[in-house]
Amino acid sequence: MAYNQREFEGSVSFVLTLVSVRMAGEKRASDDKQDSSEDCREETCIFCKIANRDDPSTEILAEDEDLVCFQDIDPGAPHHYLVIPKKHIHSCFSLQKDDINLVKKMADMGREILKAKNVTNLEDISLGFHVPPYITVPHLHLHILAPFSQLFRRSIRKYTCFWYLTEEKLLQELTENKKEKKKWHVTVAYCRVYLCEPYY
User: Fold this and answer.
1) What's the CA gap between 105 and 111, in Å, rounded?
2) From edge to edge, which strands make up the β-sheet containing 164-166?
3) What local confidence, expressed as pLDDT, does residue 177 receive?
4) Model pTM greater than 0.90?
């Protein structure tokens, strides 16, 4: 099935419950450590184990001093990879204005792995993060999906709903926050999606 995002967006109805989520432009007093997490500590985090090469079942496809890339175990498209920082960071909501370069590096690695996998149309891709509570592993990870027009049917909602924050949107928010130097909010919407006829 081929998925056309524009037609999909034009053929759904949303029931929205708005949730205001605070994203701090500067570290809050309650955040003792940016990379701390009550629900997943570094020593038990599966992504930390992968980053440290302590999970022999996961093949590392790319690596530098800060990041690693590997294939998603539940792919949503023909090509689906994850880029994670070696440092344990909970989610995109943990990021601050000084993390803009980290996000850019993650995206660059993602695009490079697509090129290495012979993906030629880099316009038909999606790079993005899920936002809490819509995350399965509480360790920052960037989804790399290609071709985006060939999302698997079961994955369409997962990578088009309001819980999915694209690389561009996250960088925009972090950049605006850096310029304004103040705390900011992102309004995230929970949506119930009613699909019309799928686009083949």
Assistant:
1) 10
2) 60-63, 67-71, 79-85, 142-146, 126-130, 164-166
3) 78
4) no
